[in-house]
Design brief:
The protein is of the alpha+beta class and 625 residues long. Helix content is 30%, strand content 27%. It binds zinc ion. Zinc ion (ZN) binds next to helix 7.
Length: 625
């Protein structure tokens, strides 16, 4: 949290000159920071009071807004719904009329007399379980008085129309015993100060830098020239940051080695919030990326090994976002409109390339064997089957906040990865193994970088100009166009082929993956999952994905009884017979027969034996960089 350059001091000095008194109305809003105060000490009814003090306005109509959406979430969350009692005051302290325009916007009519605004902020974690469309926890907020504060600042701090590029100064009154973790530059406030003061060069930087206030549970380590800080909020104290250090350090060092000389960041902060999963705590697990930090939310109940694996999977993805969108992004992202967002067409890159790298670096850096890498690719192929394979990826991306595109969003992590895999193999083939997607991203980041966005429509033509005509055909057919990708065609270029194999499974589980699930909205009904391959047990009985299991051998099925039956099923003999009553499209069906020995047909990617040296060396350059 250092980063105390001269710029910060200069900027602060300007702020001080104009900070108070009658001279205030002479300093225009564009010439002075928006001074924003958050009072974390005097929390009232689980709400935090915020005061926003901008410079003077020349216009009579001033509109103040809280974001409807923020980068990286791809959902419209209306953070204004968590704001209460918005007030505006003139320079004498008298109240000015405020008119609410919509859920996220408030208008002050006497703009030239506007001195400051105040309002109260509710948090999102408390209400997640009850909400119809809850804010994804890593983008949400928590206020637990005196214990912890998850400050995703878009939930606390707003902006004035036309003045998003003005600097901000954040003054945060904090309770004793809690420390802040953030990538925002901090102004030194001295030992025992009751306030932390942070600065941001524009509104984008305010919301790009979440702050976690929590008891000190923090570690730092160096990854090449990057300082990584990780702060953990663990409600019962079960997890100390130090317990997660070794695995994170090893993983992030491998990520940095994979990236090589690409321009990255000096500091990276991991804000890990562990939820106790009670009804008033976070329920949405995963992470949200920011340019130099990430907020991760996971259940505290995960055992150590699962916690480490979850952190590896989640943080490796978020950290690779420093390549894109940090260093390669379009104008839609650089000048993000928080209340009327225009989306970019390139989710295949922002999320797809990121997720592809999060898998590729593990094989290239020797963290996983190649068999596991192939398995991960095959899992992406299978998961992608749940989404529309003929939907143009660029069109989906451009319209991702609306139906029918929105429900296909998770495919950016599945097919998005495979688009990059195919592109990587194509680039390797055309360049005799020398160039791949990582090379492409390095070239693009040299050309653009953090402060130079590209025109959305120019990216693909530019990539084609930098590479090969075949790359243009690929984009036209499979990313802009609607033709599904024949993955086997690309695997063949590196001497790989998909083969079908029969594998043993459990009756209700394939390893740890269940064939059944619980429908929380339908009274906890147990149903057979759709869009996955079923084993011979279910298929032999004539069961289908979507069937609701009502009874087994006369026993009514709920979460408790099915758990007991799953436990017993490990001892079933193939000759045992079963009677399963299912509900399908409102009709009840009785499915009967022997349980058999459950097995399933799976597709695996294997290395074809006896392929030419060219193919083998192309594969080597793809897997080993
Ligand atoms: Zn992502």
């Amino acid at each position: 949290m250092a980063n105390m350059g001269n710029k910060v001091f200069l900027f602060m000095a300007t702020g001080l000159l104009v900070g108070c008194g009658a001279s205030k109305n002479l300093v225009l809003v564009e010439n002075t920071p928006v001074v924003t105060s958050l009072d974390l000490v005097n929390v009232v009814k689980d709400m935090v009071k915020v005061t926003i003090d901008p410079g003077a306005f020349r216009a009579e109509q001033v509109v103040f807004r809280i974001p409807k959406t923020v980068p990286g979430t791809y959902s419209a969350d209306d953070y204004g719904q968590y704001i209460d009692s918005v007030r505006a005051y003139d320079y004498k302290g008298a109240r000015l009329p405020v008119q609410q325009l919509d859920v996220n916007s408030w208008q002050v009519a006497n703009g030239t007399s506007l001195d400051r605004m105040t309002y109260w902020v509710n948090d999102t974690y408390d209400t997640e379980r009850a909400a119809e469309a809850p804010v994804f926890s890593p983008a949400g907020s928590n206020i637990l008085s005196g214990e912890n504060y998850m400050l995703n600042l878009h939930a606390f701090v707003g902006y004035f129309d036309g003045f998003k590029e003005v600097p901000y100064e954040l003054r945060i009154s904090k309770p004793d015993g809690l420390i802040a973790t953030t990538s925002l530059p901090e102004v030194p406030s001295g030992e025992g100060a009751l306030q932390d003061v942070f600065v941001a060069s524009r509104y984008f930087d305010v919301i790009d830098n979440p702050i976690l206030y929590a008891p000190n549970n923090k570690i730092s380590f160096k990854v090449s020239d990057i300082t990584v800080n990780m702060a953990v909020y663990s409600p019962t104290g079960a997890y100390a940051a130090i317990n997660l250090k070794d695995r994170m350090e090893k993983m992030m060092s491998a990520q940095k080695a994979f990236l090589g000389d690409i321009n990255t960041t000096e500091e990276y902060n991991i804000l890990l919030y562990l939820s106790d999963m009670s009804s008033e705590d976070a329920q949405g697990f995963g992470a949200l990326e920011h340019h130099t930090s990430t907020v991760v939310v996971l259940p505290e109940s995960l055992p150590q090994e699962r916690m480490e694996q979850a952190m590896v999977d989640v943080v490796s993805h978020e950290f690779f976002h420093i390549v894109t969108p940090l260093n390669v992004h379009s104008k839609e992202i650089q000048y993000f409109d928080f209340n009327d967002p225009k989306m970019s067409k390139h989710l295949w890159m922002y999320e797809g390339t990121t997720e592809y790298f999060a898998n590729l670096f593990q094989i290239q850096q020797g963290l996983i064997p190649k068999e596991e890498f192939y398995e991960r690719l095959m899992a992406k192929v299978n998961n992608a089957k749940a989404y529309d394979d003929t939907m143009s990826f660029t069109e989906m991306s451009k319209n991702i906040l609306a139906a029918p595109y929105e429900e296909n969003y998770p495919n950016v992590y599945e097919k998005g990865t495979l688009i990059n895999m195919a592109l990587d193999i194509l680039l390797r083939e055309k360049s005799n193994g020398e160039r791949g997607v990582l090379w492409l991203m390095k070239e693009l980041s040299k050309k653009y970088g953090k402060n130079t966005p590209f025109n959305d429509a120019d990216l693909i033509p530019e990539i084609v100009a930098m590479t090969y005509p075949e790359v243009g055909v690929f984009f036209n057919n499979h990313v802009v166009g609607t033709q599904p990708i024949d993955y086997a065609k690309y695997w063949a270029k590196v001497g790989l082929a998909p083969i079908k194999e029969i594998e043993q499974t459990g009756y209700f589980l394939d390893g740890e993956v269940p064939f059944i699930d619980v429908d929380g909205e339908n009274g906890g009904a147990i149903f057979i999952r759709e869009g996955i391959g079923l084993n011979s047990f279910f298929l032999g009985l004539g069961a289908q994905g979507g069937d609701i299991i009502r009874k087994i051998d006369g026993r009514t099925i709920d979460l408790d009884t099915i758990r007991a039956i799953i436990g017993q099923s490990f001892g079933w003999s193939p000759k045992r017979s079963i009677a399963m009553e299912v509900e399908r499209n409102g009709e009840t069906l009785l499915l009967e027969g022997p349980v058999g020995s459950p097995e399933i047909e799976v597709t695996k990617i294997v290395e074809v034996e006896g392929v030419s040296g060219t193919l083998a060396s192309l594969r080597q350059s793809w897997l080993k960089g």
